[in-house]
Design brief:
Layout: H1 3-11, H2 18-30, H3 35-48, H4 51-63, E1 78-82, H5 90-100, E2 105-109, H6 119-123, H7 134-145, E3 147-151, H8 158-170, H9 176-189, E4 194-201, H10 210-226, E5 230-237, H11 248-260, H12 266-282, H13 289-302, H14 304-315, H15 322-329, E6 335-340, E7 345-350, H16 352-364, E8 378-380, E9 388-389, E10 394-400, H17 403-416, E11 417-420, E12 430-435
Parallel strand pairs: 1-4, 2-3, 4-5
Antiparallel strand pairs: 5-12, 6-10, 7-9, 7-11, 8-10
Helix pairs in contact: 1-3, 2-4, 2-8, 3-8, 4-9, 5-12, 5-13, 5-14, 9-10, 12-13, 16-17
């Protein structure tokens, strides 16, 4: 068996047998498969697909390419994953809220892919935060704090670690097969009992249509439940940014304002509470989804979630006083410019992907592998669908490193907004529930 034969089989529509999946995953982990072969494999899967059996086989093979954790804790081990969007920083709210409710959350997260932001990139805007404490460090922080948001170490799903980076620069991010295997290989390797998924649909998501989002949600739920992890998915709206900020430090700032009650973002709050209610009910920490949602809301309102977040940050190398001093601890861009509305009217459409690409080009994401991220740049005070604007009123603010970068971003953000005379129907945040 060799890489060329496996790639050719997928390319020719023959699928991915389990033994081929294991051989290729091992090759990704050991380096026997080259970057060129990994890219060719990803493109073949993207174009031809590998079917349900191949998807399950690839997920298990990448999970087993490294260490699979087991836990002995006084509460259930659970996690959440989002398929990615703009201004989606729910993980930073939900992980500590779940920990405050008695769960243990080893949240293995990723970096930005394409136009979407990455949870690790956001957290690394916090000075000193270590997203790579290793397996032993992850275990220690989860036991002591109840949650840890970290990256997959070299010990966890190393095959996915290779393939994840290749997908970002090879135009294969949107493949349902590869998304499913990537997400679940890391999650299953973390030894989860329960997983709740946030599958995005809309202009700022990888899945632009509801049908595509449903297909991904079903793929994830069926594969995860088949592998023994209780899983449910919510399909949520990404026809516009979830938060009012997009960019690493700016999103952390918005989350801290919500955690501390300084300026609560209603959309972030609603999605966090909905996902948390599902997770607590599935883990039997709540009698129902409604009771679980109330528990998450109380953890946020009382400050217990903020306290857990502060303990996590300190345990992973960040400032011990971060919750109290977060405005002073986060980097700020030197150039801030408004994006002015060109006419009166209501915001009727937002091109979320265009906003995401604007952040990437500001330096808040990667155009090629190895690009260094500027954590301070991005967008803030983003207007939402249904907002009524006057001509020359700010639609958003650009945070840039240079005046030249700001000029380009202002033009891109202005073009991403559509205004009309009539008020639109505002989209629901939670669209659908998908269960096994």
């Amino acid at each position: 068996m060799d890489a060329r034969g496996i790639i050719a089989g997928v390319r020719d529509g023959q699928g991915l047998p389990e033994d081929a999946a294991r051989w290729f995953a091992d090759g990704l982990a050991t380096g026997a498969v080259s970057d060129a072969q990994a890219g060719a494999f990803a493109m073949a899967v993207y174009l031809k697909g590998i079917g349900t059996q191949g998807r399950v086989g690839l997920t298990r093979a990448m999970r087993d390419s490294g260490r699979v954790l087991d836990w002995s804790l006084p509460g259930p081990v659970l996690d959440k994953h989002s398929t990615g969007g703009i201004g989606d920083s729910v993980s930073l709210l939900l992980a500590p809220a779940l920990a405050a409710c008695g769960a243990y959350v080893p949240m293995i997260s990723g970096r930005g892919l394409g136009h979407t932001g990455g949870t690790l990139d956001k957290l690394e805007a916090i000075p000193g935060y270590r997203s790579d404490p290793g397996v032993d460090g992850l275990r220690e922080v989860v036991r002591e704090v109840g949650c840890a948001i970290v990256g997959a170490s070299a010990d966890i799903a190393p095959a996915d670690r290779r393939l994840y980076g290749i997908r970002d620069i090879s135009g294969t991010v949107e493949s349902i097969d590869l998304i499913t295997a990537s997400i679940l290989s890391k999650k299953l390797a973390a030894g989860l009992e329960v997983l709740v998924l946030d599958v995005k649909a809309g202009s700022g998501a990888f899945m632009k249509t509801l049908d595509d989002a449903r297909a991904l949600a079903r793929s994830l739920v069926e594969t995860a439940n088949g592998a023994g992890c209780k899983t449910v998915a919510l399909i949520t709206d990404m026809s516009q940014p979830l938060g009012q900020s997009a960019g690493n430090a700016l999103e952390v700032l918005e989350c801290m304002e919500t955690l501390t009650g300084t300026a609560v973002n209603a959309a972030l709050w609603e999605v966090t509470v909905a996902l948390g209610g599902e997770a607590l009910a599935l883990a039997k920490l709540a009698d129902s989804v409604t009771d679980g949602a109330a528990m998450i809301a109380e953890a946020l309102e009382s400050g217990r979630a903020a306290a857990a977040f502060g303990r996590m940050v300190a345990a992973l190398g960040g400032p011990a006083d971060f919750v109290e001093r977060y405005p002073d601890r986060l980097p700020a861009a030197p150039v801030i410019r408004p994006v002015l509305a060109e006419r009166d009217g209501f915001v009727t459409r937002i091109d979320g992907a265009a906003l995401g690409h604007a952040v990437v080009r500001l330096g808040g994401g990667r155009l090629v592998g190895g690009d260094r991220i500027n954590p301070s740049v991005g967008l803030s005070r983003l207007s939402r669908i249904g907002d009524e604007m006057d001509k020359a009123e700010p639609l958003a603010f650009v945070h840039a490193a240079t005046e030249t970068a700001a000029d380009a971003a202002v033009a891109a953000v202005a073009a991403a907004y559509t205004l009309a005379a009539d008020a639109p129907r505002e989209p629901a945040l939670v669209i659908e529930r998908v269960a096994g």
